[in-house]
Amino acid sequence: MKTNKALVLLNMGGARSKDELKTFLTNMFNDRNILTIKCGFFRGLVASMIVKSRLNSAWKNYEEIGSETPLHKLTEKLVDKLNTNLKGYKTYQVMRYTPPFASDVIKQMEEDGIDDITILPLYPQYSTTTTKSSLEDFELYSDDKFTTKIIKTFYKNEKFNNCIVDEIMSQTDTPQEYNLIFSAHGLPQKIVDAGDPYEKQMNEHVEILSNMLKKKGINFNSISLAYQSKVGPLKWLEPSLDDALLDFKDKNVIIYPLAFIVDNSETDFELNLEYREIAEEIGVGDYKVCKCVNDSDLFIEAIKDIIK
Ligand SMILES: C=CC1=C(C)c2cc3[nH]c(cc4nc(cc5[nH]c(cc1n2)c(C)c5CCC(=O)O)C(CCC(=O)O)=C4C)c(C)c3C=C
Ligand SMILES: [Fe+2]
Ligand SMILES: [Fe+2]
């Protein structure tokens, strides 16, 4: 019997308007994987307080990057390219906090006669706050409608890591004059202490990439890992990127955003504008930010390898 296969990309979503930022923040802070308060009523109360206090200041950041996240358009480009290049699959995208939501996409997939799916969360390293949250949300609506294969992590995939190395190499011909900082989205320390494998996998990922660069004879002055985007008063993973930049007064840095697959407000606003300003205040020399793998041809080839 012929099966109709689909590749389903999962990601977080982002804001394309102030209203959508409210939707994003409301859904995010009502997510038990993000705000780990057990009582749904109390979580909802805290969520609405956070949304109220954060919405206006967060929107100002989006206004500085053209009043929308680039995440959706870039994901659409990736989906289109996969639909042209990935034979035997129809590709769909599902977002966790903004449309297209799982319930609607699943309906569409049923109408399209899909019965066999491969789910690829666009998070190279596993976190309860991202991968688990997206998978739980998808499974809530998919029940056992499809034969399902899940790719939980892909930070060890060589073709994927070659895309990252290529982008880093494209930034400079003189790596010895630069310090490479892998920047990962942060997490509250208590989530890691409760068993989240993200930090461990992030360390492994940096080690894999450092070895690949070394093998290719690309020697940066230093390679390090730091965490960006802290939200709220809790202790988050360290070192923070702000603190890490203090070590590089009068030195050059290249930042690679290691937790993301497509560029978003955390790369375009935080890394390219906010942390750049911090770097200037510290007196960092050259400050370069790498692009995410986005819809690059090499990443399309990597996806073929990851799902095979
Ligand atoms: C407790 C809060 C948060 C956790 C934990 C968290 C983990 C986490 N997030 C990403 C990826 C992205 N986050 C983005 C935006 C964003 N994240 C948080 C909070 C937490 N994230 C907030 C409040 C926001 C909104 C912006 C802001 O107010 O600062 C985005 C960008 C979306 C966009 O619009 O472009 C991404 C992508 C990862 C990978 C992660 C854990 C590993
Ligand atoms: Fe986040
Ligand atoms: Fe942020």
From TrEMBL:
Signal peptide: none
EC annotation from Swiss-Prot or TrEMBL: 4.98.1.1
GO cellular component, one term: cytoplasm
PROSITE patterns assigned to the protein according to its UniProt record, in alphabetical order: FERROCHELATASE
Catalytic activity as recorded in UniProt: Fe-coproporphyrin III + 2 H(+) = coproporphyrin III + Fe(2+); heme b + 2 H(+) = protoporphyrin IX + Fe(2+)
Family: Belongs to the ferrochelatase family.
Family annotation (NCBIfam families): hemH
Protein name listed in UniProt: Ferrochelatase
Organism: Poseidonibacter ostreae
